[in-house]
Design brief:
Blueprint: E1 2-8, E2 13-20, E3 25-34, E4 42-47, E5 53-56, H1 62-74, E6 87-94, E7 105-106, H2 109-117, H3 126-139, E8 145-149, H4 159-162, H5 168-174, H6 183-197, E9 205-211, E10 215-221, E11 224-228, H7 249-259, H8 263-272, H9 275-280, H10 286-294, H11 298-322, E12 327-331, H12 332-337, H13 339-346, H14 358-363, E13 369-370, E14 379-382, H15 387-399
Parallel strand pairs: 1-6, 6-8, 9-12, 12-14
Antiparallel strand pairs: 1-2, 2-3, 3-4, 4-5, 7-8, 9-10, 10-11, 13-14
Helix pairs in contact: 1-3, 10-11, 11-13
């Protein structure tokens, strides 16, 4: 069964085409539509076993972008299918499912209405995600669609971890609570990591660290999310590329009062001007921070150590919450590729049973590998995340009998 997986952003569409069944899966093509709505848009299409194909031209909206993707998929030269009827379902990444969605769902009118109702608390993501659904309805009318939510994996978190110690009325009126994000990635790497480490997922204590420009850490207890570092929004928790992570709320109100900043300006400051970018004034990209760190830039040294140390603190916190840990997993762009991050987090953690194999850690880049020593009581692994495969799998399972 061929599934089209879409991840629609405000001005972009990431996509994969996966041929999937009960026993196996194969990536047929992947690509990116970028700069939608801007004067110069682009499509980059990478079919498996064929040369990359690129188009640069204005792309007015998501419907136009998706139409370009479908044309590329069926093109005689660089396509991977002969007819659009070969695509049997479309799976969408949707950032926020609120309390409506505890698992992936086949899209219907009620699902679309609930996704739309969450626009206010996910204004950067949900509108674009829904636009992808509506665009498919226009260009492939009648095809089954599935929504897979970043938040659904975290709906198993108990109230002691998802509620804030604020007046209860704000939860009852506005559903202000911890939702968590990156759930699709945390779910996938916990399962794959448990298999690699020889653990029974349903009888295990795993800490998953999805570290990139955005990042989060999750306590996975017996295969279910028990706690996670992101909260009501993706702002909370770790130091990130441009997000501040954990901060005393009084510090924010103090800055706002003294600078005469509006709520919108404070929100933009915390989400877009903070993190390692705000600390260094250099960049939000950890590769640039690494270069400045190596050159002896003092601000970069503090920023990178803070970025790393926050991950380490959550690993310890979640081990305490779960009463121990069997496996620590690193994933995401930085987690999969930065030996320095992994070494920092695992350093001096022998008291917890973590012993890193430095030789293996130093050469591991983006591949599924155990990087702890043979004698380590707690295993440490690098797992390459594959959110698209999770979306394709859920889409297949929900639509194969329709």
């Amino acid at each position: 069964m061929i599934v089209l997986v879409l991840n629609c952003g405000s001005s972009s569409i990431k996509y994969q085409v996966i041929d999937i069944n009960e026993q196996s899966n194969a990536l047929l093509a992947k690509g990116l539509v970028d700069r939608i709505g801007l004067p110069e848009g682009s499509l980059t299409h990478k079919p498996t076993g064929k040369d990359k194909f690129e188009v640069v031209k204005p792309i007015a909206d998501h419907t136009t972008g998706i139409s370009m993707v479908l044309e590329a998929l069926t093109d005689p030269a660089h396509g991977v299918i002969s007819d659009l009827h070969e695509v049997k379902a479309v799976g969408h990444r949707v950032a926020h499912g609120g309390e409506f969605f505890k698992s992936s769902v086949v899209v219907d009118d009620e699902a679309k209405a609930n996704i739309r109702s969450l626009f206010e608390i996910a204004p950067l993501h949900n509108p674009a995600n829904l636009e992808g659904v509506l665009s498919i309805e226009k260009v492939l009318p009648g095809i089954p669609q599935v929504a897979v939510f970043d938040t659904s994996f975290h709906q198993s978190i108990p109230a002691i971890n998802y509620l804030y110690a604020l007046p209860t009325e704000y939860y009852e009126k506005y559903r202000v609570r911890k939702y968590g994000f990156h759930g699709t990635s945390h779910k996938y790497v916990a399962k794959v990591g448990a298999e690699l480490a020889g653990l029974d997922l349903e009888n295990s204590k795993i800490v998953t660290c999805h570290i990139g420009n955005g990042g989060s850490v999750t306590a996975v207890l017996n295969g279910k999310s028990f706690d996670t570092s992101m909260g009501f929004s993706p702002l909370d928790g770790l130091v990130m590329g441009t997000r501040c992570g954990q901060v005393d709320a009084s510090a924010i109100t103090y800055i706002g009062e003294n600078e005469g900043m509006s709520y919108a300006e404070l929100n933009a400051m915390m989400n877009k001007k903070s993190g390692v970018m705000g600390l260094t004034g250099l960049s939000s990209d950890m590769r640039d921070i690494d270069a400045a760190y190596d050159a002896g830039n003092e601000k970069a040294i503090v920023a990178r150590d803070m970025y790393y140390n926050r991950v380490k603190k959550f690993v310890g916190e979640y081990a305490a919450e779960m009463g121990g840990v069997d496996l620590v997993i690193f994933t995401g762009g930085v987690g999969e590729n930065s030996a320095d991050l992994r070494r920092y987090v695992c350093h001096n953690m022998e008291f917890m049973g973590i012993e890193l194999d430095d030789a293996v850690n130093d050469v591991t880049r983006g591949e599924n590998t155990i990087i702890s020593t043979a004698d380590s009581k707690v295993k440490v692994a690098v797992i390459a995340t594959n959110e698209e495969l999770v979306i394709a799998t859920d889409t297949y399972n929900l639509t194969k009998n329709l």
